[in-house]
Amino acid sequence: MNKPETRIQKKNQSAILAAGLKVFSQYGFHGSTLDKIADEAGLSKPNMLYYFSSKDAIYKALLARLLESWLEPVTHIDPAGDPVEELVNYAKLKLTMSQHYPNESRLFANEIIQGAPQIGDVLRGELRTVIDQLAHVIDGWVSAGRIQPVDPYHLVFSIWSMTQHYADFDVQVRAILGDRDPMAGAEMHIENMLRRMLTPEP
Amino acid sequence: MNKPETRIQKKNQSAILAAGLKVFSQYGFHGSTLDKIADEAGLSKPNMLYYFSSKDAIYKALLARLLESWLEPVTHIDPAGDPVEELVNYAKLKLTMSQHYPNESRLFANEIIQGAPQIGDVLRGELRTVIDQLAHVIDGWVSAGRIQPVDPYHLVFSIWSMTQHYADFDVQVRAILGDRDPMAGAEMHIENMLRRMLTPEP
DNA sequence: TTTATATTTGACCAGTTGGTCAAAGTGAGG
DNA sequence: CCTCACTTTGACCAACTGGTCAAATATAAA
């Protein structure tokens, strides 16, 4: 089925995806041009189109790769683990991703803000399924009195929003914090927030 | 200095701004076209350019108007009031703004994600000043033991992110919640989160 | 070396976009 | 009714954009 990829194919495809990520995440889909991406990838435009048939194809390939790494960590939350630690760890992982892969986060944010024209169906399908399952786990923890009462869906939203904020709104964060490092305080704050929110009262 | 505006000028300028807001917030600056905006405003393209000299001018006018309504509520936080209530009320106000003016929120988000090319200086100037003052007030509350210890800057970030999330990521929120109304649960969750975070322990 | 295949490129194109301009139309005060 | 400033428009343009294509070049296997 899959034709064997040559060395050159591998190199160029990953160069194009890296360039596409950089450009798309900064300028959005419409603001990005094939010339800019090709230049960033170190290829001529026709040569780039030899590997990806269109601008859309590059964008879709990026989103597909992104969605995988987006959904995967959620499934690692262990229903049998300590609830507060599981959720705090998930939040910390998301924050680390915002720190190390801010362009991925911005690419995703751009897509969602503009109405998710490409991945709307995935959101309403896979994503919803995964989050429904997680919500069920969290509800179980609440029922067992292992965390304070909480709406599981909005809890997830608040974890996503607080962590992704540091990637998507990086410019604003840095404008306000000046020289101070955002991530140091961010991790402590978010952990604090979740612990005080969730830890059952004695 | 200011020439008196005619009835027609008022009507057309506000029509253009309304149309620009709608289009820019959905497609981003680059993805928006003058034709689309003019069409939405019910004017011909040259006629629209008679009132705003360029695409950039419309965008800048929108951002200027937006920044005002963005900064103003922060200054309403009363250092003499009850700390928890003041902060909870601010968060509720931001959430209400996300609910009633989602396009403004998305316009702002688009601008920030793309590196704030137009309003970077305002962020590092006015915004930072205002937030520095707020941070000072919050620090005072912490010192007085009226709220639990908290990093004031990251507290503000978390309020912004959690509330704006419901406007900027509306599509994702609705994809997950399905028919359920987002805002009902959102307000209660955010209020809960802040109260548990801030209310001093007895 | 030969050969078949994979890769790269310059020239090109049609559609779109932001913006211009001269000319025509409109409205309110005299 | 007249006038003069304000408003509106159709025709137009240069720059840019996504994408094509035939020809040239590099590569790997035989």
UniProtKB/TrEMBL annotation, chains A, B:
It comes from the Bacteria. Residues 10-70 form the HTH tetR-type domain. It comes from Yoonia sediminilitoris. GO terms for biological process: negative regulation of DNA-templated transcription. One of its GO terms (molecular function) is transcription cis-regulatory region binding. The keyword DNA-binding applies. InterPro entries: Homeodomain-like_sf, HTH-type_TetR-like_transc_reg, HTH_TetR, Tet_transcr_reg_TetR-rel_C_sf, Tscrpt_reg_YcdC_C. The keyword DNA-binding applies. This is TetR family transcriptional regulator. Coiled coil: none annotated. Residues 33-52 bind DNA. Pfam families: TetR_C_3, TetR_N. Keywords: DNA-binding. PANTHER family: HTH-TYPE TRANSCRIPTIONAL REGULATOR RUTR.
